[in-house]
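Thread: quick sanity check before group meeting

JM: Hey all, I'm pulling together slides for Thursday and realized we never actually wrote out the predicted structure for the chain we discussed last week. Dropping the sequence here so it's in one place. If anyone has concerns about the input, flag it before I start.
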Amino acid sequence: MKKTGVIGMVVAVAVIIIGLGMWLFSGSGSTCYTQIDNSRITEGKPRDGVIDLQGGMRYSYTLMAYNEKGAGKEISFGASRELREGAFLKLTVSPVRGVVEWNEVEYEELPEGVKKRYEVREMLADDIKEELVQGLTNIFQTNISMIILYGSAARG
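JM (edit): ok, ran it. Output follows.
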């Protein structure tokens, strides 16, 4: 009886360890979304003939990523090429391995919580552009007025 109990415990522990290992190292994981910003890229050197622990990923990105509810965290992942500026990516993140898969998606495919994060950034960018245009317009109008006044004074 005791021998059967010990064997049962060993089998149970082995099943738990194997299950935990499969969960930690499997490709399935949480999903989050990010937008490519190539100013946040670092380029590694090719390692000809040397074992590359980065899996041949020459470019490394560290970007803010958001889950479906809009909660953000900084995520790092690699790519074999420079990705398209401004592209939205759907990332699959494993607890231990990090980003195990990414696919480009359209803005319309983003969950609402993620869209809200990027709408705010776009609105701020639009506001800054509007202020810049207004400021340049004011400078231009002032300079034109000064040229007209200077021209009138020089003739008169």
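AS: nice. The chain is about 45% helix and 25% strand. Strands lie at 30-35, 41-43, 59-66, 72-79, 88-94, 98-105.
JM: adding both to the slides.
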